[in-house]
Amino acid sequence: MGGGGSLAANQLDFPVLARLAAHLPLSDGVREQLAGLAPQGVLSALRLRWQGDPAAPDNWGVSARFAGLGLAARDSLPGLGGLSGSLDGDERGGRYRLDSRDAHIDLPEVFESGRLAFAQLRAEGGWQRRDGRLEITLDSARFENVDAAGTASGVYRPQPDGAGEIDLQARLSRAEGTSVWRYLPRVVNQDTHEWVRRAIRRAEVPEANLRLRGALDDFPFREGGGEFRVTIRVVDALLDYAPGWPSIDGIFGEVRFEGPGLRIEAARGRILGVALSEVVAEVPDLDAMPSPVMRIAGKAAGPTAEFLRFVSESPVSARIGGFTEGMRAEGRGALDLRLALPLKEMDAVHGRWRIPLRCQPPVVGRGAARAGGCRGRLRFTADSLSMPEARAQFLGAPARITARTQPDGVVRFDAGGALNASALAAVWDLPVADHLSGSAPWRAVVQIDKGATRLEVDSELADLSSSLPAPLNKRAGERWPLRVRFEAPAEATAKRPPRTLTLSLSDWLKAELEWPANGAPVRGGSVSMPQRVSPCAWPSVG
After folding, report:
1. Distance between CA 541 and CA 514 in Å, rounded?
2. Number of CB atoms found within 10 A of residue 10's CB
């Protein structure tokens, strides 16, 4: 057999051949290769000839048809299964044709899932030696499975000391967006695989393209010398980019894997009821250590109330004490979105947002505090809130408001303005307002800590005069220091009622009220006027 030989068979069963190998005049190397490849399927019309050692013949020729052909993956070579077709050629070159159903290709060194399954696979190509190197060509291929359908063509040049070189193009005419993660190569780390698998919740993919060129040992070509690019056009996609954050829905754009990185560009989309534009999500290096970081940037325009809802439904809400829960805003605004997502530590999401508040007809408020005509900018990070300055109308007069998150996590608002008697009369249709004149500068502090609210309002009332009957009559220039304190604990206890209000006016009026948080009537309180009238007390109710 060392000088050469030939083999012809009308039909040959590979599993039978593998079992007979021990009884054929084959070298130990050939027997080992046969056992490692675990061949399956049936050959028909086989014509095989060779010259020299069968394990490494000087020349050879083969022609055959095959059905259900299968080979195990071995020595960096892909595994095969369910392939049907024909081949005809020799060591100088030849042609092959595939026409298979329910076939698969195993690429455990390339893909995390390992196996690519095909409901249909049709292909034509050949092989030839060019400048002493084997070159395998794929002239055309059509494939279809549950995840995708498309075409491909390319060239592969094996190398004995490496993974070889490839020049491949593929185009998908249909793809299931939620299965993209299955086709990410192993060079993309496990954290990114998991993020892609979990984040893409829905996506229609009318078109996708692949370009892969270069030495596979250099993939993904960080230093150049090759090209790796996958572009995926998506329609009406749903991206759940981070646990606990509002999803981005209705995405129309493109997902691009290029070199070592990932980039998502969306011309439009939406978060909650807000329209998005110019959205870009990018990971420069999917294999970065200790964790690849995705950065998301975008713009949004829509109802200001939806922006506050975005904050309330994200982890930011808990980190700023639930401040935006219960806040109302009317009118429209804009948002600049900036997020950084460490794909290995999704709880460490950080970012910033700027929400301009321009409310017409404007109302922004939380609980009993209401402000209109607001104009300002709320700034959020993943764990803080700030508002450098906002202007609003409060009780008919201008007011200034600033806000920040303190180091202990408490959200603090500082406000100030001047209470104008004539403006107050226009806002409040009460007879008492007709007896007031002048103005009264005031300042207020609101602190919100994990659902608990504390309000402090102070004014000297020096420039305000009153023609009300005694003891409420007052001349301009008299200082009647007014102190108002309101507290609403996050949770009521037996010793700490849900809401309390204390008020003091100069040194002659003090009042304290308390009532449940469920809107029930005042359940108790007291009023004392030590200098001007006899003290009185309100009995507890209920």
Report:
1. 11
2. 8
